[in-house]
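pls read this stuff:
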Amino acid sequence: MHPQTLRILALAAALLATVLFFSTQIDGYLSERMFTRISTSAAVILPIAVGQAIVVITRNIDLSIGSTMGVVAYLTGDYLSGHPELHPVLVLCLAMGIGAGIGAINGILVAWGRVPSIIVTLGTLALLRSFLVEYSDARTITTASLPQWLVDLPQANAFSIFGIDVRVTVVLALASAVVMGLCLSRLRAARRFFAVGSNPDAAVMAGINLPMVTLLAFVLSGALAGLSGFLFLAKFGNITVVAGMGFELKSVAAVVVGGVSILGGSGSMVGVVIGTVLVDTIDNSLTRWELVSEFWRDALLGFLIMAAVTVDTFMSRQLSRLSRKES
């Protein structure tokens, strides 16, 4: 069986075990209300996890993704408060466009400035948060200033399955993962992300424009952070300068737990989706589980990242040894 398939099956088993465990600890856990709570929460994280996965596949990382999401949520909400007549599709394009622009700045600095991505995105993380503080001038975006269609969006149902309603926001988030998953598996141009992450030198020798591939990865990451910013604005309505803070950790956790190698070159969107749901299920469940403090929630996310990286490194070494023996 292919290693990626094994990882997905292991993730699915871990998710099932997590749900079964918390169902014995929390009253009314297996309910439509809890499903809606977790699915809509995971929907906000999923697009930034997909974007983070693309960047990580190219052997980079985007630590500014949470700040990008916060800036997009605030700027989009601020613009809508003065232009409530703007069409929903144009609002979504605006949010993703702002995010893509921020991602392009990161990509240019990494691809042509040759600055390590962790340094660049740490810098833009701080700069974006500082910009938001200055721009907002302590003002909060409230639901009262937003158009009614956006306020109603989180409660809008796309369809029902087994009598359980699935929200439109969940469908939007899943669509981003499905589209990117199909592109990575079907489009030859998108396979260049894997080539660059697996062996940058070999990719250059094969004629791949490494700086352009790196730039595109960050632009996509920024655009998907813009989508998350739009979903964040719709879900919460009241946006402050701390919007999106801490989502960097959640996106990295979802990606590495989802089986995307932190060393680049491998990963799947199916794993990212399951990893996102697993991380958010644990986070939401611990919130309702009174035995665990908020400190331990963050500590557990950190532990999940370390465990996932350790397992990934171990599996990579074992596969390398098997390949050498076969050859």
About this structure: The beta strands are 157-161, 164-167.
